[in-house]
């Protein structure tokens, strides 16, 4: 039996819209509760004896049929019953928006008369959102839109909705609505994909007799085909089935697919692919080598040019040295279970996806040399829109440097969508603050505040402190100090039979805030206090500190200050550009030697040292740098390569 679905009150705005329009599009950001609302509306209509169809346009997690498709379903016996799919073979609604719109139009034409709810994907920003939402509304022939958006965070596509000329109602998301997170979505879609293939059988397709569409890998790379989704279409372009490629063997394609209703005429293959971990995700673009590469002209891959990209896991945070040990300093700190990031320094951001800039709340800049601040233009461009101000912290003079970068651009078209920043400069134990708005000629002073012990930022769960070092110019080193770490005991979670989900993040938040009396809604619909759930499920331990230091001369005062900041830290990211034999070069440029780096780590008693910012003169052999570090700090950990950066 499917789990019962809550009904909507009789005066709910969506029900009112459906009295005036047969077809309504439900839009909102990820995690706003669109699919839950659509289910509740369908259940309410069914209780009244009215039929309801849903067209799910989120190929990443349709909630009705298989991922990698647009799906049409009918509400029946308390759940959606799949009636038709339009294969897309991708999970990315933004990138493949034209095929998605075509798929929605095809399914909307197949839908019977009566109520049809279009569950739109959560693509609500940028060019993709601005193009996709109006196109979906027109393709499905909707008469009205219901938008889920909080009053404090206006819907980014408000103007696009107005331009459609259709009735539109904005409704605040339900209080319990939460983004489930990438990990949960990936696991859920993989489960849905496995369920779709339960009745699958193996088939062999002769490629010369079929048309291939989409973004197929080259035939010369058969390894790039295995695991990809494949849509099987008839001569009219209707979907016969959606399967998984097992292997490309010359001109033959072996696949797994549920039984087909006809003979395929064409195939569609894009980027949805089962990974080595068995989960369905998005394949990286297949890189093809040039046919006649010149030995001296072939560029080294980024990984080899910038070296390994060390990563540190601190429970609540994951820290990644984005540009490796040789590239521009940029440490990305990802807050788990949140679509939020912090950055230490702002070097070349080319490895970071643009959408991550929308999730950066705080940037801590050591100093204004180009390799530490040059990425600000990336952040600046990505913050055009209705975003809250991004906070930046650094040494005296930072606001002036940032204002100079902003003022070098003509801002006559952005109006109220101008990027906004709040800048804090550490002057001793006082934080001097400024507001910078693109289009304004100078920073606006904000009230200064005390910064005892170099405290730059403090919020529930963690704080960031700094100390001032000397590099011929003031430089800040930073310490990230989580208050506590709250971990879920998975064995206890499984013993209770509760699936993981956003409710665990809510529980952790209340525990960290000391709100033990708060009620937490469990997956089975019951509620319990945060205190009782914490006792049953959570493990609390002291937070693990991370310290970041780069560009400092090897002086007694610098050593004293950095050792004090890093004392007992779990991990220290510290520069080590030069060998001891290059001490004169290090002294002249205001940097550390590898030996000095190791000595500082040993004096501070850190658990792990991650040396970085190596001079490129050592790019062919870092062994000597590491050997010198280990002479002073034998506990240096091996570099742990990091994976591809993501945004949630």
TrEMBL record:
Pfam families reported in the protein's UniProt record: Lactamase_B, Lactamase_B_2
Organism: Halomonas ventosae
SMART domains, A to Z: AAA (SM00382)
Residue numbers spanned by region Disordered: 278-313
Compositional bias annotation for Basic and acidic residues: 303-312
Domain of life, source organism: Bacteria
GO molecular function, one term: 3'-tRNA processing endoribonuclease activity
Domain AAA+ ATPase: 20-236
Identification of the protein by name: Ribonuclease BN (tRNA processing enzyme)
């Amino acid at each position: 039996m499917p789990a019962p679905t809550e009904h909507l009150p009789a005066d709910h705005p969506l029900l009112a819209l459906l009295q005036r329009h047969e077809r309504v599009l439900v839009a909102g950001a990820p995690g706003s509760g669109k699919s839950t609302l659509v289910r509740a509306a369908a259940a309410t209509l069914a209780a009244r004896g009215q039929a309801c169809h849903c067209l799910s346009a989120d190929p990443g997690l349709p909630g009705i049929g298989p991922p990698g498709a647009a799906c049409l379903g009918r509400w029946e016996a308390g759940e959606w019953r799949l009636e038709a799919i339009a294969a897309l073979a991708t999970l990315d609604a933004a990138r493949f928006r034209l095929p998605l719109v075509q798929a929605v139009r095809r399914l909307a034409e197949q839908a019977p008369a009566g109520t049809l709810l279009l569950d739109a994907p959560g693509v609500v920003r940028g060019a993709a959102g601005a193009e996709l939402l109006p196109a979906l509304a027109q393709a499905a022939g909707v008469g009205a839109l219901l938008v889920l958006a909080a009053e404090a965070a206006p819907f980014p596509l408000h103007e696009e909705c107005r331009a459609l000329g259709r009735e539109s109602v904005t409704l605040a998301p339900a209080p319990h609505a939460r983004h489930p997170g990438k990990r949960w979505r990936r696991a859920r879609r993989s489960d849905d994909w496995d369920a779709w293939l339960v009745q699958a059988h193996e088939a062999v397709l002769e490629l010369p007799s079929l048309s291939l569409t989409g973004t197929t890998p080259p035939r010369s790379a058969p390894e790039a085909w295995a695991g990809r989704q494949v849509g099987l279409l008839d001569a009219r372009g209707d979907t016969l089935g959606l399967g998984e490629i097992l292997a490309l063997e010359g001109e033959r394609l072996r696949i797994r697919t549920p039984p087909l209703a006809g003979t395929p005429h064409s195939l569609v293959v894009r980027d949805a692919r089962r990974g080595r971990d068995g989960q369905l995700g998005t394949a990286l673009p297949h890189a093809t080598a040039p046919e006649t590469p010149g030995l001296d002209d072939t560029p080294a891959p980024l990984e080899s040019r910038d070296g390994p990209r060390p990563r540190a896991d601190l429970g609540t945070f994951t820290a990644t040295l984005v540009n490796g040990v040789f590239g521009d300093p940029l440490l990305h700190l990802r807050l788990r279970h949140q679509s939020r990031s912090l950055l230490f320094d702002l070097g070349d951001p080319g490895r970071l996806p643009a959408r991550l800039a929308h999730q950066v709340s705080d940037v801590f800049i050591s100093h204004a040399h180009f390799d530490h601040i040059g990425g600000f233009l990336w952040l600046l461009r990505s913050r055009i829109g209705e975003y809250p101000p991004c906070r930046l912290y650094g040494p005296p003079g930072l606001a002036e440097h940032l204002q100079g970068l902003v003022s070098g651009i003509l801002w006559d078209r952005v109006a109220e969508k101008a990027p906004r920043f709040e800048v804090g400069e550490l002057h001793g134990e006082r934080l001097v603050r400024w507001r910078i708005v693109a289009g304004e000629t100078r920073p606006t002073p904000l009230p200064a505040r005390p910064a005892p012990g170099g405290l730059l930022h403090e919020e529930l769960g963690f704080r960031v402190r700094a100390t001032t070092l000397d590099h011929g110019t003031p430089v800040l080193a930073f310490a990230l100090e989580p208050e506590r770490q709250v971990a879920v005991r998975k064995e206890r979670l499984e013993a209770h039979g509760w699936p993981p989900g956003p409710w665990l993040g809510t529980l952790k938040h209340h525990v960290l805030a000391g709100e033990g009396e708060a009620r937490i809604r469990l997956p089975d619909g019951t509620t319990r206090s945060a205190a009782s759930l914490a006792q049953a499920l959570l493990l609390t331990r002291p937070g693990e500190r991370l310290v970041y230091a780069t560009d400092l001369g090897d002086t007694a005062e610098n050593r004293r200050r950095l050792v004090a900041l890093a004392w007992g830290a779990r991990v220290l990211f510290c520069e080590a550009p030069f060998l001891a034999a290059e001490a004169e070069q290090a002294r002249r440029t205001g940097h550390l030697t590898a030996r000095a780096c190791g000595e500082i780590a040993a004096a501070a008693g850190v658990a792990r040292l991650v040396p970085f910012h190596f001079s490129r003169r050592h790019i062919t052999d870092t062994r000597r740098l590491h050997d010198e570090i280990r002479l002073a700090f034998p506990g240096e950990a091996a570099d742990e390569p990091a994976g591809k950066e993501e945004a949630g």
